[in-house]
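Lecture 7 notes. Example A: sequence first, then its structure tokens.
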Amino acid sequence: MNIENSIEALNSLIEINNDRIEGYKTAVDQTDEADLKNLFSECIKTSEKCKSELVSEVRHLNGTPAEGTKTTGKIYRVWMDFKALITGKSRSAILNSCVYGEEVARDAYMDALNTCSMDLNDQQIALLKTQLAMLKADFTKVKGLKELATL
């Protein structure tokens, strides 16, 4: 197990949760629909919980938790596209962007579990699997509303 690699993997997921929080805060501000505001608020709470747990784990490893969002790469572009699309307040556009953002977040967790598992201890792997299940539950809700919006 490599502690530095563990910290790096966990910090990457902190940044993804920060991206997710910021994206959903923007979505809440841009929609007037109560059901979307409620769902997006739930998604924010999920990522705040995940982030808090990840920060605690990084500190437990004597690392410095990441504080910002990703500013390069795929995650950044996803959320920037998300923010641009929601300005039209189109329910379908908002939900399409959310689904795409959820897929990227889910993929980041799966990637961390697949490529960093040798650098993570059993407790960290269990934590990431639990968080991934929470993200998948949010994804199912968002995708369900998206499918209804396109009927």
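Example B, a different protein, same format:
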Amino acid sequence: MDEQNSRKYHGEEDYYSRHDKLKPSTSRLSQRLILIFISITTVLLVIVIVFGVIIVHLLTSPSQNSSQSVTLSTPIPPTASLNGGATPTVVVPTPSPVATPVPTATSLPTVGTVLCQPKASDWPQTSDWQTVGTEYVNKDGNSTPVIASCNISVSNYYVEAKIRTSQSNFGALMGVLARLSLEKKTGYKGGISYATFCGENCGQAELDDLLNSQQAMAHFGSLYTNTAYTVKLQVKGTDVTLYVNSNLVQEQHYTSANDAGQVGIECDQACEVLQFTVVAQ
């Protein structure tokens, strides 16, 4: 019995002794499992991080490539805005529009501009009117008006002529014409003549509106043969005035004005035109 007890005791002792020997092995196994789990977790975390980095790179790379292609294809001028570091805004130069030439309007002559001043040789040569030296002479007293070769572009001007005569026929007009149209029978005529029932060498000024056959007359002093007189007919709007030797002798205010028209001379007796000038007003 003692022996059995002794065996039993040893058996229990052996059991506990073996159990104690197994404990260190189980502990080491657990540690290994924990290490393996940590390692796997670490590897998975690294894989997730790498995958995330790749995704971010793929998401951002198209905009970079796009901006690079824009930069390469279109040069950015110095004034291009970078928008605070964002994709540069490309400023494409706009071609300047080609200006269409605009015809320059012909400016009107200013007051005092000489519009026409023909020489004696510039006038028409007819059976009645001939150039003699520096004078334009009416030898036969033909009263048909002679048109000057003047291009009058304005309606306001004056016509001035220096005229003399060797005859003393009463009522024989010597003068100038303005705003004349022979086709329409319009215009103004101003001149001088010997007056009837006024005494010896009495001068008479005459202003005619050809369209309405209106005539106004006034004495201006004496008219002598072989003496030059300056006759000036001014048309300005509806106002028409006549001067003899710079003295105003007739003034009319009409209700309407004729067009620019032509200018010319008329003599009802032999006369000589020494000078002829048209000046803008």
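Note on Example B: The first helix runs from residue 2 to 73. The helical segments are 2-73.
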